[in-house]
């Protein structure tokens, strides 16, 4: 997940977003399962950090140290009875959750968000008469992918490989994989400049669905002279 996403998370949690911005963000959370998972993890981690540095938690750590000191003396085990308040359990649970998350993150496979830095769409110039095409372009560039999908679908004629390419990316972002992959497979069978890029995004679609083997198969089909070849080779290495 990139830095921009974390800035949005923080703005939302601190009620710093404008009303429309907040509504758009909540819509995106609803439509984008990966973004929602990252947001929930960020929210939990933020709560943990606040808890960790609170005065009460600091006192709890001191209590644990004194308990440990009193438990082992000159190699002899002593029994000591003490009470633990409910918040102690919560603090301990938070530590375990964060530790588990850290271990998982450091041993997990690469994520779609690590590679989903999309180029901007540039279908139309300012003042163009095709309103839906312009809406699709603008929503895509603002990363409002659910709205971009709606705008693309209102266009009717999507025979242009460029439109299909950006429409497919918006579909992947909103987890509509089957429709996206149908479009991308059509593009890669053609001769447009988006042919190899379609293969790259098919691989990313599989990655987002955690079909790692399927992603590797597609990545290996990207030719050496393709723009995304180096990224494809890097991703293959991470998927081993």
Question: How is this structure best described in words?
Answer:
- Helix content is 68%, strand content 2%.
- With 240 residues, it is mostly helical.
- It has two domains: 3-107, no CATH class; 112-238, Tetratricopeptide repeat domain (Serine Threonine Protein Phosphatase 5, Tetratricopeptide repeat).
- A two-stranded antiparallel ribbon has the order 1-2.
- α9 runs antiparallel to α10.
- The longest helix is centred in the middle third of the chain and has 22 residues, at 86-107.
- This is Tetratricopeptide repeat protein.
Give the proportion of residues in helices.
55-70%
Helix-strand sequence: HHHHEEHHHHHHHH
Radius of gyration: 24 Å
Strand order of the largest sheet: 1-2
Keywords:
2 strands; mainly alpha; 12 helices; 240 residues; two-stranded antiparallel ribbon; 2 domains; Serine Threonine Protein Phosphatase 5, Tetratricopeptide repeat
SSE topology:
Layout: H1 3-13, H2 19-31, H3 33-52, H4 55-71, E1 72-73, E2 76-77, H5 86-107, H6 131-141, H7 145-155, H8 161-173, H9 177-188, H10 195-208, H11 212-219, H12 229-238
Antiparallel strand pairs: 1-2
Helix pairs in contact: 1-3, 2-3, 3-5, 6-7, 7-8, 8-9, 9-10, 10-11
């Amino acid at each position: 997940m990139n830095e921009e996403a974390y800035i949005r998370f923080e703005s939302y949690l601190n009620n710093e977003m404008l009303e429309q911005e907040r509504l758009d963000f909540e819509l995106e959370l609803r439509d984008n399962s990966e973004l929602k998972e990252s947001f929930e993890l960020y929210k939990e981690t933020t709560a943990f950090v606040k808890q960790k540095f609170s005065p009460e938690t600091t006192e709890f750590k001191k209590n644990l140290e004194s308990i440990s000191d009193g438990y082992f003396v000159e190699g002899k085990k002593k029994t000591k009875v003490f009470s633990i308040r409910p918040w102690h359990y919560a603090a301990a649970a938070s530590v375990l959750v964060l530790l588990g998350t850290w271990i998982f993150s450091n041993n997990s496979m690469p994520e779609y968000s690590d590679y989903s830095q999309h180029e901007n769409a540039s279908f139309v110039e300012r003042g163009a008469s095709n309103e839906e095409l312009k809406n699709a372009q603008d929503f895509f560039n603002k990363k409002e992918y659910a709205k971009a999908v709606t705008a693309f679908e209102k266009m009717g004629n999507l025979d242009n490989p460029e439109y299909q390419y950006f429409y497919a990316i918006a579909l992947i972002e909103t987890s509509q994989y089957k429709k996206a992959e149908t479009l991308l497979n059509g593009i890669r069978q053609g001769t447009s400049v988006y042919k190899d890029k379609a293969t790259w995004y098919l691989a990313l679609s599989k990655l987002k669905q955690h079909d790692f083997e399927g992603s590797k198969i597609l990545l290996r089909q990207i030719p050496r002279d393709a723009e995304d070849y180096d990224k494809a080779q890097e991703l293959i290495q991470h998927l081993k």
